[in-house]
Design goal:
Helices cover 32% and strands 19% of the residues. It has 216 residues and is an alpha/beta fold. It has a single domain, classed as Alpha-Beta Barrel (TIM Barrel). An 8-stranded parallel β-sheet has the order 1-8-7-6-5-4-3-2. It is globular.
Length: 216
């Protein structure tokens, strides 16, 4: 499988959101990556269900919703109704992670777990077989435009090893500071999905930038 590209809507121009959604529709991107922040788990507030519903009206590709929120179980059904196809939740906030993953799947969505940069891969050993994807944060979550954390390559290799040994079919997704320099190394290490925000939307030609990332 060729790796997937998921532009992060957090870096889009919110005053021209439909334009940017159409750009992604017409590009080589595979998913929409949508960061939901509550100002509690992370020190920032992004957008919620009304904005996701608005994006869904125009989006022609799967919506990959990354919940950076406390108590995500309360909102699983709401995000499904808003248009989410994939939901990822943070290991760091889920007291009953297996139950949360099963609740996401019960709504007909793909389910994944997110690990912050300091969280080791080994915490997934007992749940990896149940996951559709694992999202590794390559920056500290909460704000776009941060610098990539180099230790991420090692974590990708460790995660790939765990997935292969367990027989899991989980995809490896990377979020944070992805650009044309580290993307080839991430794919070589085993990454399946690259989230790119600022690198795409702040470029002179976002469609070409997406094609460049897709071509590695």
């Amino acid at each position: 499988m060729s790796h997937l590209i998921a532009p992060s809507i957090l870096a889009a121009d919110f005053a021209n959101l439909q334009r940017d959604v159409e750009m992604i529709n017409n590009s080589e991107a595979d998913w929409f990556h949508i960061d939901v922040m509550d100002g509690m788990f992370v020190p920032n507030i992004s957008f919620g269900i009304p904005v996701i519903k608005a994006i869904k009206k125009h989006a022609k590709k799967p919506m990959d919703v990354h919940l950076m929120i406390v108590d995500p179980d309360r909102y699983i059904k709401d995000f499904k109704e808003a248009g989410a196809d994939i939901i990822t939740v943070h290991y760091e906030v889920c007291n009953h992670l297996h139950r949360t993953i099963q609740a996401i799947k019960a709504e007909g969505m793909q389910a994944g777990v997110v690990l912050n940069p300091h969280t080791p891969i080994r915490v997934l050993e007992d749940i990896i077989i149940d996951l559709d994807l694992v999202l590794l944060m390559s920056v500290n979550p909460g704000f776009g435009g941060q610098s990539f954390i180099e230790n991420t390559y090692k974590k990708v290799i460790q995660l790939k090893d765990l997935i292969e040994k367990s027989g899991s079919k989980a995809l490896i997704e990377i979020d944070g500071g992805v650009n044309d320099k580290n993307a080839p190394k991430l794919v070589a290490a085993g990454a399946d999905v690259l989230v790119a925000g600022s690198f795409v939307f702040k470029s002179e030609n976002p469609t070409e930038t997406i094609a460049e990332l897709k071509g590695f």
